[in-house]
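Methods — Computational structure assignment.
A single polypeptide chain was analysed. Its primary sequence is given first, followed by the predicted tertiary structure written as structure tokens.
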Amino acid sequence: MALSLAFAASAGRAAEDGVRPPTTKGTKTGLDVPRYVSLKSDKVNVRRGPSTDQPIIWVFSRAGLPVEIFAESDNWRRVRDSEGAEGWVFHSLLSGRRTVLVSPWAKGQESVRLHDSRSTGSHIVAELQSGVIGDVVECDGEWCELTIDEYSGYVEQGKLWGVYRDEEVE
């Protein structure tokens, strides 16, 4: 038990830095743990433990919000949001669709530029506010191509939460 708690604590620190911690394969899915997924619905109960007998500690209310899975137990996934809050979510309320939050740590600060190509010198398509959700088209480890409503373009990967630093997404 102490080993799994130590791993979870180190995974949390690494995720905060944007660096992907060492991965293992999930015991139920065989997929990488940790990994990012998104919420399927506008109402997702987060529980203290992996069971409907466990109390609901809060409710996510934003479909498409990215969360990080860092543990699995039967049909339950232990997730962490961009603010570091953790809890258990039933697997069917999560989607493999990759989404990101634009600089959630910079609330009320400068906007993030959506460019028309992978260069800070390229044309600016839009100015994105902190907390905007974007759909990931692909990431090359430095830039992510996103679609956000009717806009599409590129954002520097380090300005996004929902992808690891240097992670490639196809």
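Note: The first helix runs from residue 2 to 16.
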